[in-house]
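Metal-dependent hydrolase, pasting as requested.
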Amino acid sequence: MRFLVSVVFFVSVLLFFGVNISPEQLSYAGLVPVLIPVFLLINFVLLVILVLLKRKLLILPLVAILLGWRFVGVSMAWNSPVEGKGLSVMSYNAHMFNYEKYKARDPKVTPNIYNWIREQDSDIIGIQEFYQDNTTPSRNAIKLIGQEGKYHCSAHSVEERKGKRFFGLAVFSKYPIINEGKLFDNRKTNGAMFVDLKIKGDTIRVYNVHLESMSIPADQLDNIDGIKENYRKTWRRLNRGVVNRASQVDLLAAHIKNSPHPSILLGDFNDVPYSYTYFTIRSLLENSFETAGKGFGFTFNKVLFFLRIDNIFYHPSLAPLRFNTLREVDYSDHYPIKAVFQLEPLVDRTLAP
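Structure tokens follow.
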């Protein structure tokens, strides 16, 4: 028993501090922290057993649980939503608006996803895997979502250049966009952009990001057998994605630190809360799920349904009223997420960056 408890304690401590190690510095380090929930559960079971046996050894699992308690907070939330109007912010990986499903059909058909986004009437909308087709009215996302000027729009391609059709990121805002820019892109699928919005006399910077994906083909994610059959290749791809995300999140964190305005960061992070990616950003910004959400907040709409990889982070000077994962919407392989922030304080004070 002493050997077992000691080993579990030692491994648990390594895991808990592993989220602070960049996967760029230690290969595969970014994959190990996903075991944190498992070891928290093991420590809890050991604590119960040792309490019943009245063994002093219980101090080790107790200390481990205390050290790892912060990971419980990033996994589950118990907040009660606060009603009232505010600044509504939505993030959605739209999976190209299901474009592949519709491109062989009648060009005049408008996918329901555009209608659904319009019906949300959010003040700020950040979309990842955004697809713009200027040649077909029914797929002109900027025009359809923008509603003829209701929203200001900034869209960036992750490819070398924009054409009549392009793939990338977009932010729609009811408030004027006074500045915009791109942080990085890999000229394939991922990238990061920002816009500065003028809101009630103040300026807020909104980042929209789509960090390096897990690089696992979608057909393998549709069933667990596909993952098992290709586990070696899957393991290498996962590690490659973790390392690339570490580089991207370091660049993103540096940009946020130098921002002259308070920031809202939203998007598809392609990483779980027990990660270098998550805790690097969490050291700078608050997470709206943790402070205003409820439950587990899973956002992935595939066989690995227990993943929360989409987030809305915010500057501490902002106050979230509520957060929701909109799981009733299944147009994409991600569920949309939405946070509402208190707006009135913006009238009375200038937000410190």
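Note for the archive: Residues 231-257 form the longest helix (27 residues).
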